[in-house]
Design a protein that fits this description.
Layout: E1 12-14, H1 27-34, E2 38-40, E3 48-56, H2 60-71, E4 76-84
Parallel strand pairs: 3-4
Antiparallel strand pairs: 1-2
Length: 86
């Protein structure tokens, strides 16, 4: 309501059952772990999408999810996280 934008849940689907990101030590390992792990379930036909996640460490999961959204037609993808873990 604050953004005056529609809320769409369930737009992304996990295609690959990946191992926990906690077990990956480096950013490169985390990127490999989630590469092609997500797919959009419908076309987004341009516009912007906002990804919401609880915690980000290296951004690998957000990057993989954003790639799937852009592949489905999103022109811009923004990420909102509530915590950053180092």
């Amino acid at each position: 309501r604050v953004l005056d934008a529609p809320l769409a849940t369930g737009v992304l689907r996990r295609e690959v059952d990946t191992s926990s990101q906690v077990s990956a030590a480096t950013r490169a390992e985390r990127l490999r772990n989630v590469r092609d792990a997500f797919a959009a379930v419908r076309s987004l036909d341009g516009g912007a999408a906002v990804l919401v996640d609880d915690v980000t460490t290296t951004g690998a999961t957000l990057s993989a999810a954003a790639h799937a959204l852009r592949s489905a037609g999103a022109e811009r993808v923004y990420a909102l996280t509530f915590a950053h873990e180092e």
